[in-house]
């Protein structure tokens, strides 16, 4: 069976798609890059905001058209949107052959077999991570699933369930598997990394997980994504400051800086806490790059609330900020509040914050010119610096070609908005040979049973 994956939404969906694909590869399927010509197209949907839902629907419809044109045999929809809206999707999209919720992940293979779409020899060890082509050097590792925060605007607990940390031994084995597949940068993801281990009794939290990953793997770059400010502890700072392979970068969503708005959002921090944690991180890890996200137009947000947020961003000076206009999500507490900020005002506030942040980013990035840092080579003369996360923070143009996956020392020579230019000084670390090609069955087998629960 030839299978093509279309992955929408966040990095956690990327991990899920790789696990699904690994299950199928172990059963004899072959991964292909393009949907046209595949036997089965799997769309991993996102249901986070309305725009993501529309994108998921469009992807499903496009795959269905390929099926109508006899270019694919079957269309499968999985993921968060299916988890929340399976009944409505079944009624609206009868051309979809199979819907699989997040909570039913282990049913994908048997249901494909029931429909005669998967007929290779059945194996005893399903559940490897695979990748469907492209570079294997940048990978994602999910430390936990679900969320207990209960933010008023967020539907993640409705789609992903309560917070569950994965056993540290399983996390390490999966990281080692990704290293065997060629990982040179490991992006740690969760709804809130700081909650890792709180629901377990083995004493392993995020700091211990970082130490174990550094000790048990040789992956050069380990990057933290999605850590709430309240989770920044002295123990965590000590580990990050001590371990050179932990990239000095943190994606720390704050969502707002006005205490009344944060309270209505049911966020766990207040402005003072956020300010203090940013200062602590910068003191402990000089040169760290901090990224955040903000929501404007939340119900009840006044002009004064917005000005507080704008002033705070100018004061704290994050390297990058993702700015979003609030949209009500069915089933959340905020959806029951009056959406009293007009869309036109939301757009104005988004544009205003974007303009402010462009100036801040310009200053922060200009201060990096002349610095000597390591860079991860991607392809050709393209690379990324430590403060450039995969797919969201731009890239760096080198003055020569470097081997993909190599860690090279560079001098930053210029910046153009979000992209840098750099001169290569030397090669620090060449990538080892990759253990397996995409779509083959020679990948090391690691059971992922614990990761779906």
Q: Say what the CATH topology of the largest domain is.
A: pyruvate-formate lyase- activating enzyme
Strand count, sense and barrel status of the largest sheet are:
6 strands, parallel
Count of β-strands: 18
Which class of the largest domain in CATH terms?
Alpha Beta
Q: What is the SS-derived class?
A: alpha/beta
Q: Do you know the CATH architecture of the largest domain?
A: Alpha-Beta Horseshoe
Mind telling me the CATH superfamily name of the largest domain? tm_1862 like domain
Structural account:
With 453 residues, this protein is of the alpha/beta class. The protein folds into three domains: 125 residues, Methylthiotransferase, N-terminal domain (Rossmann fold, 3-Layer(aba) Sandwich); 229 residues, Alpha-Beta Horseshoe (pyruvate-formate lyase- activating enzyme); 58 residues, OB fold (Dihydrolipoamide Acetyltransferase, E2P), CATH 2.40.50.140. A six-stranded parallel sheet has the order 6-9-10-11-12-13. Strands 2-1-3-4-5 form a five-stranded parallel sheet, sandwiched between helices. 45% of the residues are buried.
Considering the chains and any ligands shown, give keywords for the structure.
single chain; alpha/beta; 18 strands; disordered C terminus
């Amino acid at each position: 069976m030839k299978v093509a994956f279309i992955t929408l939404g966040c990095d956690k969906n990327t991990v899920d798609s790789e696990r699904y694909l690994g299950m199928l590869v172990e059963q004899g399927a072959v991964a292909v890059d393009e949907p046209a010509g595949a036997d089965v197209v799997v769309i991993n949907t996102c249901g986070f905001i309305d725009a993501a839902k529309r994108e998921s629907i469009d992807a499903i419809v496009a795959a269905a058209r390929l099926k109508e044109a006899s270019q694919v045999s079957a269309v499968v929809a999985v993921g968060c949107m299916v988890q929340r809206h399976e009944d409505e999707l079944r009624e609206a999209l009868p051309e979809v052959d199979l819907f699989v919720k997040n909570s039913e992940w282990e049913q994908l293979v048997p249901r494909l077999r029931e429909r005669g779409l998967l007929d290779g020899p059945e194996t005893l060890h399903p559940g490897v991570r695979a990748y469907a082509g492209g570079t294997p050097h940048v990978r994602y590792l999910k430390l936990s699933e679900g969320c207990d925060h209960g933010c008023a605007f967020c539907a993640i607990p409705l789609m992903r369930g309560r917070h569950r940390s994965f056993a540290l031994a399983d996390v390490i084995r999966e990281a080692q598997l990704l290293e065997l597949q060629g990982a040179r940068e490991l992006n740690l993801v969760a709804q809130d990394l700081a909650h890792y281990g709180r629901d377990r009794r083995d004493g392993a939290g995020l700091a211990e997980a970082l130490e174990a990953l550094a000790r048990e793997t040789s992956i050069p770059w380990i990057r933290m994504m999605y850590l709430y400010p309240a989770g920044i502890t002295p123990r965590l700072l000590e580990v990050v400051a001590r371990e050179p392979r932990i990239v000095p970068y943190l994606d720390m969503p704050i969502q707002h800086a006005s205490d009344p708005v944060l309270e209505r959002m049911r966020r766990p921090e207040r402005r003072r806490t956020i300010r203090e944690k940013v200062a602590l991180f910068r003191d402990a890890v000089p040169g760290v790059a901090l990224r955040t996200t903000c929501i404007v137009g939340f119900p009840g947000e006044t002009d004064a609330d917005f000005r507080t947020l704008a002033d705070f961003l100018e004061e704290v000076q994050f390297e990058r900020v993702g700015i979003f206009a609030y949209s009500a999500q069915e089933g959340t507490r905020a959806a029951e509040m009056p959406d009293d900020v007009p869309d036109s005002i939301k757009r104005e506030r988004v544009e205003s914050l974007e303009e402010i942040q462009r100036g801040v980013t310009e200053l922060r990035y200009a201060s990096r010119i002349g610095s000597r840092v390591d860079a991860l080579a991607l392809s050709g003369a393209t690379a990324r610096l430590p403060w450039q996360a995969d797919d969201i923070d731009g890239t760096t143009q080198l003055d020569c070609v470097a081997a993909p996956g190599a860690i090279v020392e560079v001098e930053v020579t210029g910046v153009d908005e979000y992209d840098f230019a750099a001169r290569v000084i030397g090669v620090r670390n060449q990538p080892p040979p990759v253990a397996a090609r995409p779509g083959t069955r020679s990948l090391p087998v690691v059971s992922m049973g614990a990761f779906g629960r």
